[in-house]
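Researcher: Good morning. I'm working through a list of sequences from a screen, and I'd like to move beyond sequence-only analysis. For each chain I'm collecting a predicted structure so we can compare shapes side by side. This is the next one on the list. No need for commentary yet; just the structure.
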Amino acid sequence: MSNPRKVCIVGSGNWGSAIARIVGQNVAKNGMFENRVDMWVYEETVDGKKLTEIINTQHENVKYLKGYKLPENVVANPDLKASASGADILVFVVPHQFVPGLCEQLKGVVKQNTIAVSLIKVQVDTGHFAKQLLQKSKNRKRKKTRNFQTTQMPSTDPNINGLNIKDKGLQLISHLIKESLGIDCNVLMGANLAHEVAAGNFCETTIGVVKEEYGPVLKDLFQTDSFRCVVVEDATTVELCGALKNVVAVGAGIVDGLGYGDNTKAAVIRLGLMEMVNFAQTFYKGVKIDTFLESCGVADLVTTCYGGRNRRVAEAFVKTKKPIKELEAEMLNGQSLQGPHTAIEVNTMLKNKQMEDKFPFFTAVFKVITEVLPPERMVDCLKAHPVHM
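Model: Good morning. Structure tokens for this chain:
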């Protein structure tokens, strides 16, 4: 029998804490894994106490997942290298902007045969167009108009808030982890709102593996009676679904903010799903259409368009006319927003290929959040969608 696998969770927000509940419970009853699960926690002070101290004594993340106990074998650690040392499985569940820096710290620490799993539903790495957006944001700042880029991209650093500006365009988080650490990175995505998962409500998720042999191990690590896992050997499509659905959710929030009803939102979801499929097939190899019918695809899309943070903030963006960054700070309790970032990155690729007209929904969302287009005009863009012509 092989030695038990050590599991380390990199991240401890609401989703990280929810998944830590599952992983902690599963490893405790499965001899395939070590009983202790190290969870790297970005140290914060809550009511005068260190968050790691609270988690390790009260076994609860009182800031990000209040009311749900963590298993006692989940140990919070503010030292990333110590947490990950000797790990056989690294579970990444952090805000996307931290990934490059965390991977840099983990170089030389991670074993060559370690495998990673990304639960991060966003993409990184924009191209030249992001620099143009930065210049536009500066121009708009001079005019004292509110806009997304001014608040999100305040510097000319080539790594702006986690958006790595390189020549090659958009890069998936799993690919970034693999390139940085030299290890295989799988993905887990689905219709999984953190508080519902923590409460034990029935749901499904999709594990996209890069090698078939990883499937059984990861299923044992994550599946419970109420958290059911389907494994597909199509990690790229699973991750694309997790990222692109955030753009659609922003569109759903915009029409909600404008006061449209369920019929309009249904049209947004359908057109958004169509463009998700077309985008994946256009820019990535080996995309399997069936994967869009898994939890990571249509199920996660519907959930996010009705209950996710991207929808809520986009709705408030239209109703309050406040900058997205300001709303993010007001509404998300320290969490980050993915949809606007991804919309910018997607548009970078479309513009570089002169394909914006082929993706009118994605393009309209991009133009609204960057204030090139008034929110009221988005539905006009959908009326003129090529599928209606």
